[in-house]
Amino acid sequence: DTNGEIEEYDIFIKPAQPISDEIKNITGITNEMLNEKGVELIPALQALFKVMGVRTDGYDEDIKIIGHNIIGFDNLFLYRYANEMGYQMPKIDHYFDTAGEFRAMLLGEKKYIDETDHDFHKRILNIFSKGVRYNLTAACKNYEIEMPDAAHRANHDCRYTMRVFEKQKGITLVKGDPFHKEEAGQSGFNF
Q1: How is 75-103 classified by DSSP, letter by letter?
Q2: Could you tell me the CA-to-CA distances from 185 to 36, 61, 68, 120, 146 in Å, in that order?
Q3: Distance between CA atoms of residues 48 and 189, nearest Å
Q4: Which of 1, 134, 140, 155 would bridge with 187, disulfide CB 3.0–4.6 Å?
Q5: pLDDT tens sequence across 111-135
Q6: ∠ CA(138), CA(11), CA(20), 5° rounding?
Q7: Range among 33-37, 58-62, 104-108 rated most confident
Q8: What would the mean pLDDT of 164-171 be, rounded to a whole number?
Q9: Which residues lie below 8 Å from residue 167, measured CB to CB, with a gap of 6+?
Q10: Are the C-beta atoms of residues 156 and 10 closer than 8 Å to each other?
């Protein structure tokens, strides 16, 4: 909010099948954790859409949804489930993709005069360029954002994405480092 207060929603989603060893290694999440703390997909999505300001009768017009590769990855899932569940996702001008912005910088690409952030980021993310690493870890390294916690956990990825956005826009949304406190689960969403 405008006072720099952070509200987090802590959740694990129970998958339909056990997670693979590869996913366990990447995220540090185990099947035991999901069985103990996980919730079913539909209630989790309902909670997510509420946090996002998305409703069945529309969406919060003041919302800005920020994600790292949200246009190229996350929205594929979000739009599908929103449509299936009768929710209305925000129009494209409500999104900012930090991966698209970072990749544009790496490639030396500029936004066209009448291009929206969404269209610019989508165009940049669709450019084929071998060897250009624009993942969240690479963005944090470029912007000198410390990553003491593992990437590929929703709470950490959300926090790092916010810091990347702050660097890209030259603003501070949250002063200090309120993120490194004892946590019980994921504290965010990252599909």
Answers
A1: HHHHHHHHHHHT--PPPGGGEEEHHHHHH
A2: 11, 30, 21, 34, 21
A3: 7
A4: 155
A5: 999 999 999 999 999 998 888 899 9
A6: 65
A7: 104-108
A8: 95
A9: 143, 145
A10: no
**Rounded to whole angstroms, how far apart are CA atoms 21 and 138?**
24
Radius of gyration of the chain (CA): 17
3-state secondary structure of 38: strand
Residue type, 178: P
Residue 10 CA to residue 2 CA, distance in Å, equals 22
Cα separation of 50 and 46, whole Å?
6
Element (H, E) at 42: helix 41-52
User: In whole angstroms, how far apart are CA 101 and each of 22, 94, 135, 180?
Assistant: 29, 15, 11, 26
Separation between Cα atoms, residue 10 and residue 39, nearest integer Å: 11
Q: Which range among 10-19, 76-85, 177-186 shows the weakest confidence by mean pLDDT? A: 177-186
Length of the chain: 191
Determine the Cα angle at 138 with ends 31 and 96, to 5°: 85
Q: What is the rounded distance in angstroms from the CA atom of residue 43 to the CA atom of residue 174? A: 29
